[in-house]
UniProtKB/TrEMBL annotation:
Signal sequence extent: none
InterPro entries: OstA-like_N
Superkingdom of the source species: Bacteria
Matches recorded under Pfam families: OstA_2 (PF13100)
Organism: Gillisia limnaea (strain DSM 15749 / LMG 21470 / R-8282)
Ranges where the Organic solvent tolerance-like N-terminal domain occurs: 63-197
Chain intervals with Basic and acidic residues compositional bias: 566-580
Protein name: Organic solvent tolerance-like N-terminal domain-containing protein
Residue ranges of the region described as Disordered: 547-604
UniProt feature, compositional bias: Polar residues: 554-565
Length: 604
């Protein structure tokens, strides 16, 4: 101020003020201050008072018929009463306060302050900020017009056309029409409830971005993720990072999950797990679709189903696995290059059908084309110990109560092969084969219709006595520890025991013989033998939230934002869990208002 005084003293009065400012800038190198450029707050009021004792340098504005009205830089404010510091470009507003910024933002409260120099507003007491798509309710709100941001930290409620959002801390970015909610965030919708640690919400679209541990709960499902996206108006979502969807008896988990509430559909990509909590099964793969209302699951890309039976797991792998039906009558289907493994049994087929209620498993060859080497390798085959059974279709029946193997049936072109302990193969063929199990071990096989056998007969010293080739109507074979012990032939028996050296080598295989021992699954790892690992699809992630500066930072600190007459003190701008909800009452001396009213009555 001393420097300005020097110039006003020695420069002639007639020099234009603009020239004075120009010379000041040239000599000092200092631009005019923000305060010099700030426009003054305009106002109108039915009544104007002064109370120099309590409010030195201020005027008291009060409503009679019309509310007190302020306008400044595109913002309009109405209130019942105000204390206005004209020199400081600052006022406090009391009673039915309403702020209007253009046609996009309206804010109501019981009390407010506005600093025209910094364009900073503060409101408390039943604060409600309204935008075209949403409304925000809180008890204390800070509004920085330069940044075009609003902020609360003591709890707020946002309402839009679809949902109600609450949080302890919230920040609104007007240019992006975005709310950023922190701490105890909750979104309540008639169909679901979202709980999250951090959520960004775009009010124009209804899009919500979820960060940190988050749940979306409804009557029919619960979604969990640690990063995700949800369209609150169209009820669709996309979730990444530790994501899972829990249905009543099924859990879908994976690297990336898509969810559509409208048609009860979900899909997953990469490292998918579908857990059936009721039927004790787990299905894995790298792409899956779940239809809740249809109780169905489709999974592919290294698809694998694991079902617990009698304290042992049955593993089924195929190109595609489908699971359908209610929990009490669930069906598992596998298509193309099916591989099955259990510690005491393994198998292969072109397709598989498993009914968990009845315990029936069907191995089927659906290829009806010409027979070829590839077709033979796709036809159903079962290995039990050293025994191989093949045919057009194989049925395996387990007891649903005990979950133990009960029986096995091979339809059409049934063929049983057991590798001899030293050389050759014991072989039995016929039209149909029935196998019976005890304690999950094969103990009896019956083969009917045009049966043939080639059997290597040995003495107790395991020396080969001869090779028996026999034709009969039916055969019964008894096993002990899954090794052939006895063979019984029935009806129209025609066979001879031939010395090994007299039995031609080219006659030691029955017609249709196809030993596939090299394909036998010896462990769970063989389910994927010879198959390259699938190429996983690159997941499009959800970016982390932008690191915003604190609402109160160096650009709008207490020293720059607050007026000395503000109700707020610098300490009030520091982060804290609770703001004061008390709204100051007008403290204008009643006698001044009384005197003013009497003067008005006399003048009238």
């Amino acid at each position: 101020m001393a420097f300005n005084y020097f110039w006003y003293k020695f420069i002639p009065v007639k020099v234009p003020a603009l020239l004075i400012i120009f010379l000041f800038v040239i000599i000092t190198g200092v631009a005019p201050t923000y305060a010099q450029e700030t426009k003054k707050i305009d106002y109108t009021s039915d009544r104007t008072l002064k109370d120099e004792i309590k409010y030195p340098g201020a005027i008291i504005l009060s409503k009679v018929t019309n509310q007190v009205y302020f306008i400044h830089e595109g913002i309009e404010i109405w209130c019942d009463q105000a204390i206005h510091y004209d020199q400081d470009n600052f006022f406090k507003a009391y009673g039915n306060v309403r702020m209007q910024q253009g046609d996009t933002v309206t804010m109501q409260s019981n009390y407010a302050e506005y600093n025209g120099t910094t364009q900073f507003a503060f409101a408390s007491g039943k604060v409600k900020m309204t935008r075209p798509q949403t409304s925000l309710e809180t008890d204390t709100l800070f509004f920085d017009r330069i940044k075009q941001q609003a902020y609360y930290r003591s709890g707020g409620t946002v309402r839009d056309s679809a949902s109600v959002l609450t949080s302890r801390v919230g920040r609104y970015f007007m240019e992006d029409d975005k709310y950023s909610f922190l701490s105890k965030v909750k979104v309540t919708n008639p169909e679901y409830v979202i709980n999250s640690e951090q959520l960004d919400f775009y009010s124009e679209t209804g899009h919500a971005y979820l960060y940190g541990p988050t749940t979306i709960e409804s009557e029919t499902s619960t979604v969990y993720c640690e990063r995700g996206f949800y369209d609150t108006r169209n009820d669709t979502g996309y979730f990444v990072k530790n994501s899972r969807i829990d249905y009543e008896n099924r859990i879908l988990a994976g690297d990336s999950l898509y969810f559509n509430r409208n048609n009860a559909f979900a899909s997953g990509t990469n490292n998918i797990k579908v857990t059936d909590t009721l039927n004790k099964s787990l299905i894995t793969g790298h792409y899956a679709e779940v239809f809740r209302d249809k109780d169905s699951v489709f999974i592919t890309k290294r698809a694998l189903a694991a079902t617990l039976q009698d304290k042992d797991s049955v593993f089924i792998h195929s190109d595609t696995i489908m699971i359908t039906g209610k929990p009490e009558d669930r069906i598992i289907r596998g298509y193309y290059d099916v591989r099955m493994f259990k510690t005491d049994m393994s198998g292969k087929s072109d397709s598989i059908y498993l009914n968990q209620k009845s315990g029936l498993t069907k191995l089927i060859n659906i290829n009806k084309g010409p027979v070829s080497t590839i077709d033979k390798r796709r036809s159903p085959v079962i290995w039990s110990g050293n025994n191989q059974m093949t045919g057009d279709t194989i049925h395996i029946l387990s007891d649903p109560e005990t979950e133990q193997l009960d029986s096995l049936k091979v339809f059409n072109n049934a063929f049983l092969v057991q590798k001899d302990s030293i050389q050759g193969y014991n072989q039995v063929k016929g039209q149909e084969l029935t196998g019976l199990f005890v304690n999950n071990e094969l103990y009896q096989v019956d083969i009917v219709k045009n049966t043939e056998t080639i059997y290597y007969t040995r003495n107790e010293a395991t020396e080969l006595v001869g090779i028996n080739k026999t034709l009969s109507s039916s055969i019964k074979i008894l096993f002990q520890e899954q090794v052939i012990q006895e063979i019984y032939y029935y009806k129209q028996v025609d066979g001879t025991l031939t010395a090994p050296e007299e039995f031609p080598q080219n006659a030691r295989e029955l017609s249709g013989f196809n030993w596939r021992g090299d394909e036998q699954l010896k462990s769970k790892d063989d389910l994927f033998a010879g198959k390259p690992a699938p190429k996983l699809r690159q997941i499009k992630g959800i970016p982390l939230p932008e690191e915003e500066t604190d609402f109160f930072d160096e650009s709008n600190s207490a020293e720059t934002l607050l007026n000395e007459n503000s109700r707020l003190k610098p300490g009030d701008l520091k982060d804290k869990e609770k703001d004061s909800t008390a709204v100051p009452e007008s403290t204008i001396r009643p006698e001044l208002l009384k005197e003013d009213k009497e003067e008005e009555g006399e003048s009238n």
